[in-house]
Amino acid sequence: MLSDLTNKRVLVTGSSTGIGAAVAAGFAEAGALVAVHYNSSAKEAKAVVEGIEQAGGRALALAGDVGSTAGAAGLVREAASRLGGLDILVNNAGALVRRVPAMEIDDALYDQVLDLNVRSVIMASQAAIPYLKEAGGGAIINTSSIAARNGGGPGALLYASAKAFVSNLTRNMAKEFAADRIRVNAVAPGVITTPFHERFSTPEMLEGMRRTIPMARLGSPEECVGAYLFLASDRMSGYITGQTIEVNGGQYMP
Fold this sequence. Notes:
Helix content: 40-55%
Number of helices: 10
Order of helices and strands: EHEHEHEHEHHEHHHHE
Mean pLDDT: 96
Largest sheet: 7 strands, parallel
Strand content: 5-15%
Low-confidence stretches: none
Radius of gyration: 17 Å
């Protein structure tokens, strides 16, 4: 049923590790040509590309700072040039940056978190729209988070709010670009075992989160992949737009 992803040209931002890396590999396995994006993790991105190629897939690595308008737009242009166009954009780049109590947030942190998690999505999408129109339509899939629904954990005010922003801009963009046959949806992962939590969450915090999950375990990046492929496939989800799929083991049920 995912055969319609064969030869699709896909850019996955923030795909050198974690969910993004798994998603990039998933698209390649489905027959797509994939641009693996990284900012500072060149070694990891190269490993993702090598893994895809060893499995018989096609991929290339592209560097760029999507936290700036110029960086996001430049990445999309380079991806479209190298891939011969663009059919699918996955806006996955994002980070908590660091846990900070609300009363200690300053302008620099505000700008860094919002630029990376929100500006990147808007500006990469803006740059991608002409290529998707040229292709006759396509899909944009944004990575939100369970934090968009529950407010996030300690010190995650900016990150959680940014992800709520992403969930809402997904709905607005879905309305605006439906006439162009561009579907815009989002995936909201729960607690997934990635470098994100290795960096920002203690073992005690993760155990506390695990206890709130009905499935009684944390998720893996690979368990998120199906939602992205589903939303990218016109055959599977051609009448779905403006939606957010929650992938969280039942931790949050909207």
